[in-house]
Amino acid sequence: MKDPSRSSGSPSIISEDVIINGHSHEDDNPFAEYMWMENEEEFNRQANLLLERFVFIAQIEEELWEEEFIERCFQEMLEEEEEHEWFIPARDLPQTMDQIQDQFNDLVISDSSSLEDLVVKSNLNPNAKEFVPGVKYLNI
């Protein structure tokens, strides 16, 4: 069977137009591969512009990520507030003296007999020193 890559229609490797190092023998300028250096300053200027654009885009992307993060945190905080019953003074505090009086009247003052029962059942030491914050007591 005949190999299709060796068909007579394909160019032969053995020819006069052999390309060496990316150039044919017919090239008149032996320095053609170095011609890009002629415009090196323009190349560097364009490369610097691309780099500046890349840095600018990266900064914008970082700012967008930061804004998105802050927005997510704020949204989570709002959801958390909705989950819990928070004390809101404008809503929860009475606005008038009548409302304050109503709340005061709703308070129940216990009678002295239940207070004595509470004292009898207490396991606090009645002979203990009075607690003063910030003072250290030594047990001697």
UniProtKB/TrEMBL annotation:
Residues 1-15 have a biased composition (Low complexity). It comes from the Eukaryota. This is Polyadenylate-binding protein-interacting protein 2. Acts as a repressor in the regulation of translation initiation of poly(A)-containing mRNAs. Its inhibitory activity on translation is mediated via its action on PABPC1. Displaces the interaction of PABPC1 with poly(A) RNA and competes with PAIP1 for binding to PABPC1. Its association with PABPC1 results in disruption of the cytoplasmic poly(A) RNP structure organization. The gene is Paip2. Residues 1-23 are annotated as: Disordered. GO terms for cellular component: cytoplasm. One of its GO terms (biological process) is negative regulation of translational initiation. It is found in: Cytoplasm. Belongs to the PAIP2 family. It comes from Elachura formosa (spotted wren-babbler). GO terms for molecular function: mRNA regulatory element binding translation repressor activity. Keywords: Cytoplasm, Translation regulation, Ubl conjugation. InterPro entries: PAIP2-like, PAM2_motif.
